[in-house]
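Now for a typical sample entry:
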Amino acid sequence: MPRSPDYLTATGIGVSNLKRSAEFYERVLGMKVTQRIKLDHMEEIILAHEGRNAVVLMHFTDGSNPNYSNLPVKLVFYVTDPKAIAARVREAGCEVTREPARLPSFNNTVIGLCKDPDGYVVELIEAPQARAETKAA
């Protein structure tokens, strides 16, 4: 299928503690802050892996009381080592809800699930290049 000229550049999620969430995505998932935005009603931190789509962490400062906890949102990441990421999730004080393991129904790819500081589901899928290296070894 040819590449579309239109594409998703980022996904935004509301967070209860901007600093804690930014540290989670930086330290645990290896993302880098690409931009910080301060608006009248919210602050945002944009994080990305180099050359990839971004996650926008949004914290509302307008006095509204948004629900940030355990919303039905899943962020899916290709990662080179899902087990190492799961260990960092635990070190950050967050929950691993499904230990990374090979899934026969998903072509024996290693997949795990965890939660970020606000309870958003983070799916860790073994990156195709890491999987190819494992098969070659």
Notes: Residues 18-27 form the longest helix (10 residues). The chain has one domain: 10-136. The beta strands are 10-14, 32-38, 42-48, 54-60, 74-79, 96-103, 109-115, 121-126.
